[in-house]
Amino acid sequence: MTGQRPTAKGNGIVMKDPITVSITGAAGQIGYSLLFRIASGAIFGPDQPVHLKLIEIEPAMGALAGTVMELDDCAFPLLAGVTPTADLDEGFAGASLALLVGSIPRKEGMERNDLLGINGKIFTGQGEAIARNAAGDIRVVVIGNPCNTNCLIAMNNASGVDRDRFFAMTRLDENRAKSQLAAKAGVHANAVSNLCIWGNHSATQYPDFVNARIAGTPVTEVIEDRAWLEDDFITTVQQRGSAIIKARGASSAASAANAAIDTVRSLLTPTAEGDWFSVAVCSAGQYGIDSGLIASMPIRTDDNGNWSVVEGIEIDDFSRGKIDASVQELREEREAVSDLIPA
Fold first, then answer.
1. Comparing C-alpha atoms, which of 162, 137, 142, 138 is closest to residue 152?
2. How far is CA 96 from CA 8, 22, 91, 264, in A?
3. Whole-angstrom distance, CA of residue 94 vs CA of residue 101
4. Cβ contact 160:138 at 8 Å
5. Alpha helices of the chain — where are they, by DSSP H?
6. What is the rounded distance in angstroms from the CA atom of residue 238 to the CA atom of residue 242?
7. pLDDT for 174-227, tens place per residue?
8. Which residue of 32, 60, 315, 316 sits 20 to 30 Å from the alpha carbon of 9, by its own alpha carbon?
9. pLDDT in tens, 102-115
10. What is the reported pTM?
């Protein structure tokens, strides 16, 4: 592709200057599900051209070339250019958004700690390259698992980049939780609001049904089966990734890509009045979560595109125990990768 700026043709839309979006693991299943939606305007809207920097390891560059051909063949009006590369400096040069998808996927029977050692060094290099090359307005969303701790590693190795520019994706868990509550209540998932995923994107995560609402009414008043909420609901959300791996022999792809798009859009657009969404951010000590941990909390975005942790949410004893367990796991993960975090 030429990389030239697209122009509006007969539709009255005045195009903005293109922005650069960098995606690692671009030839993988999540990347494949993600690229075409970004190029079609699903994140930034119909007036924002994008230049895609597609980053892969050398053995995957052949497959990535085929994906680039498909992007060309779509003739997306908003696609200003595509740069496939295995060089991190080239891949993150000028990026305003980096989606760190690439990681060794979790397979059936693989323990979470196995991924920490395998993937940790990948995110060290990526954090360093982002610091050297990305645009000043960079936002980094880590999708590759274990995403909280991978994000922690990247953030701590991106010297000079503000910590509030780093996020780890728990929106897939939020979407899963909303779907489960909606099915139980016999409503559409859109009716579920104020659903926060607390802690780690792992089997310890806590989908907070206590503060969630269905059509404005507390979930616990709509779904009176407290035993189901405390047991089957939480377990189903926590184990959904494993269930999908068992069913299809591979990790979630399309739903993960969809959640990544949801995450970025929620960070860029004002949150509906009274609502919040889930994403893991660098804790400043809110809700008893250690400062410096990448933990999922309830987040709001204001009219100026600034995000903040929602304060003052009541945490009952049941929720407190679940949150504390997930935070403890994050502490243990941080300790396991301490050699990758600069002092």
1. 142
2. 23, 8, 12, 12
3. 18
4. no
5. 29-39, 61-74, 88-92, 112-133, 147-156, 171-185, 219-222, 226-228, 234-238, 240-248, 254-268, 317-336
6. 9
7. 999 999 999 999 999 999 999 999 999 999 999 999 999 999 999 999 999 999
8. 32
9. 987 666 676 666 77
10. 0.94
Q: Which residues contact 255 (CB under 8 A, 6 or more apart)?
A: 172, 175, 176
> Cα–Cα distance between 100 and 237 in angstroms, integer?
23
Q: CA angle, corner 243, sides to 242 and 247, nearest 5? A: 120
CA atoms within 13 A on the CB side of 162: 7
Residue numbers annotated as active site: 201
Average pLDDT of the chain to the nearest whole number:
94
Indicate the burial class of 337 (C-beta count within 10 angstroms; 0-12, 13-18, 19 or more): buried
Q: What is the DSSP string of 63-124?
A: HHHHHHHHHHHHT-TTEEEEEEES-HHHHHTTEEEEEE--SPPP-TT--HHHHHHHHHHHHH
* H or E element at residue 214: strand 213-214
Amino acid found at 48: Q
Which amino acid, residue 285?
A: G
Q: How many residues in total does the chain contain? A: 343
What is the distance between the alpha carbons of residues 84 and 55, in angstroms, rounded to a whole number?
6
